């Protein structure tokens, strides 16, 4: 399957070492070789401290690798970042309280010098996509947590990035809201053809959303398996009750023990 597909992101022998409080080296990530395809929905999954965020940060040019390198569309992460090809969604929506939802979505476009009309049209288009059109003139504190995260997603899509980096975006939300957002995210991903790199420690979430799940194991953080999620799309929520879904969940869970790619 992989041969004919375009590789968008490639890490080679990627490693990151931090210093602990006593000045000793701590390997957060070691020897990560990963190829991510264009238009793929890929999840980094693993227990706390296995290096998921560190790997995401290396790709996003927010963390310099100690070893190895990252190539994205044949460029360095820095070049890609400067070309605004990344969109970010973090666990906590970073919305400014004093700006309306629409003005929050417009912000990156404002910084990039889009004209007033252009950014207004684009913001409304993005808000419609995430189901928040009627809340454009509300302020963030008038929205639920799920709606705030929708606004965050709308903002991340504003500059039409090629790659969306999502670090535990739904982990603070209740199960019902999360389920709805999963559905919407997959719909938006399909409609926009972005590459999504999604971080979570929730196995079901990773299996439900992804084309492939990358399992990271801790101490030191390493890629211990890549599991293909061969469940056809669209995936109704009931798929979570199927035998195959649960087999994949078990397969991912068992991958934490060891094995190498
Ligand atoms: N700036 C830093 N300085 C020192 N150690 C760090 C730093 N950032 C991360 N680490 C360590 O690197 C390891 C990997 O951290 P990372 O945040 O990437 O893990 P994670 O899998 O994303 O965890 P979580 O699910 O808890 O967010 C951890 O042991 C962490 O303590």
UniProtKB/TrEMBL annotation:
Recorded superkingdom: Bacteria
MF terms in GO: ATP binding; ATP hydrolysis activity
Alphabetic keyword roster: ATP-binding, Nucleotide-binding, Transport
Pfam families cross-referenced by the UniProt entry: ABC_tran (PF00005)
Domain spans labelled ABC transporter: 9-243
InterPro entries assigned: AAA+_ATPase (IPR003593), ABC_transporter-like_ATP-bd (IPR003439), ABC_transporter-like_CS (IPR017871), ABC_transporter_ATP-bind (IPR050166), P-loop_NTPase (IPR027417)
Protein name: NitT/TauT family transport system ATP-binding protein
